Predict the structure.
Amino acid sequence: MAEALRTDKAEDDRSNAIFTTYLKQPAEIGEALKTLRNQRIGLKLTFENDTTIYTARILDVLGDEFLLEDLQPRAGLKLMGSRRRFAFSGRANGLYLYSEGNQVRRIDEDRGVPYFRVPLPRNALFQQRRRAARFELALRTDSNPATVTLFRSVATDRDHGDTLEGRMLDISAGGCRVAVPGPVHPPLESGEVLESASIRIPSLFDISVQATIRHASYNKLTRKVICGLEFTAMHVTDRRRLERFIQSLSQSADRG
């Protein structure tokens, strides 16, 4: 715990540069875990009565639990299976999260690959720089663009029905931006919960997600609505497909 509470002198000298608190609400802890997931940050795990430092990736955050996968070293599988309590920490650009006393709820498999269901912690130490940047990856497509189909639950006009299809502009682990031909009636608005959204990356995959509109604006010159989606839930298999795709984009960007 000493590591969690320590900041260097340069950080101490910057008044209010770092916000520190203990999160106690499940929704707040879930959002912090989603931020680490979206930035593809691995967690460090330490088990009771074991000195080894393990690593794992956050696969998803669903309801009252989060999913972990890719536990390394593999000896940790036995500790997870025996329900040994563990602490975890994760550090991204501008964010630090630490929690003790965690215990796996259940071990499941997807196509033979295990993942671990862990209840959300009751509390967690949280630190965040106020200037933290959001992590996103640009998606470049040409003649065969990536598309997103929005299935709305609101009553719509005859021209659009309850389905809208647009071109994906960019994507991250937590959401994407879409350009939809407009105008749209009724307008897309922040907070609108979609029935679902279908994402198609040509020659790679089609996935279905639950999503919420986080922002939308209509450009009269281009006659397009630019909207941002937050992915709120998806099947484990689709989550892994998305993670692999984003990892490939990240590797391509590093080489470029």
Notes: The mean pLDDT is 83.
